[in-house]
Amino acid sequence: MMLQNWGSSLRNPDSSSGTKPWGVAEQNNMLTQAMKYNAAFDGVFYHTNSVEFANYYSNMFNNAGITKIKFVITPAIK
After folding, report:
1. Which of 4, 14, 37, 66 could cross-link 61 (Cys pair, CB 3.0–4.6 Å)?
2. CB proximity list for 54: less than 8 A, separation 6 or greater
3. Helical H runs in the chain?
4. Rounded distance, CA 25 to CA 15, Å?
5. pLDDT tens digits for 52-74?
C-alpha cells in the first residue's frame, strides 16, 4: 500500500477522511481482508512506504488475533 501522506489517508482513522463513512468502511475492509488472508495462508506480506500505516495496522491486526501478516517497508521511488 503506497501512501502519499498517512496524515490525510482514508485508512488513517485520525484523518478528516478517515472519520467519514467511506473512510471507516475502508478501514473495516482492511481488517476483513486481513482476517481472510490470515485464515487462508501461512504467511502474508503487505508492502507499504508508510511506517505509520504499518504500525497502526500491525497493532490493529495483532489486537484482532491476526498473526500471519507482516509489513515490509518499501520506499516509494518516483
Report:
1. 66
2. 46, 48, 71, 73
3. 21-40, 51-63
4. 14
5. 999 999 999 999 999 999 999 98
